[in-house]
Amino acid sequence: MAVDANILINERIREEVRNGRTPLNAMETGFRRAYSTIIDSNATAFLAHVMLFIFGSGPVRGFAVTITVGIVTTLFTATMLARLLMVRWYAATRPPRCRFEERHDVDASAVPLRARRTRINSCAAASPG
């Protein structure tokens, strides 16, 4: 969920930059527009895990508590810490504009099939159960 929140924020900021906003205004608007989606997804997950805690027993309750703590931590880091770091970066560099370059250099087909199978099999072997 933390990665999702940061991706949402960065994509919103990119949209605002493409719309011609200044870097500071783009960051402010991007964070503001991403908050509702982030809160919605985390609130939904939080409620699901509360239900797991209420209706589960033993290890299921422990899992629910662990995931709930993770959700609260994610909300804090995505909303407070990420914003703080971006504001500090902006204050230190004062860029006249933000450049976001589109990257299309990642190609999954470039990884040989044998290497992919080896990685998948090693992950499956390391998985408990």
Describe the protein's topology.
Elements: H1 2-18, H2 23-55, H3 59-93, H4 113-126
Helix pairs in contact: 1-2, 2-3
Comma- or semicolon-separated keywords:
129 residues, mainly alpha, 4 helices, 0% strand
Account of the 3D structure:
There is one protein chain. This protein has 129 residues and is mainly alpha-helical. The chain has one domain (2-102). The protein is 77% helix and 0% strand. The protein is built from four helices and no strands. The protein has helices spanning 2-18, 23-55, 59-93, 113-126. α1 runs antiparallel to α2 (23-55) and α2 (23-55) runs antiparallel to α3. The longest helix is centred in the middle third of the chain and has 35 residues, at 59-93. The mean pLDDT is 83.
Largest sheet: none
Strand content: under 5%
Total strands: 0
Q: Could you report the average pLDDT, rounded to the nearest whole number? A: 83
Distance linking N and C termini: 24 Å
What general outline do the C-alpha atoms trace?
flat
Count the DSSP helices: 4
Structural class: mainly alpha
Write down the domain tally.
1
* Helical content class: over 70%
Element-by-element helix/strand order:
HHHH
Low-confidence stretches: none
Instruction: Provide the gyration radius in Å.
Output: 20 Å
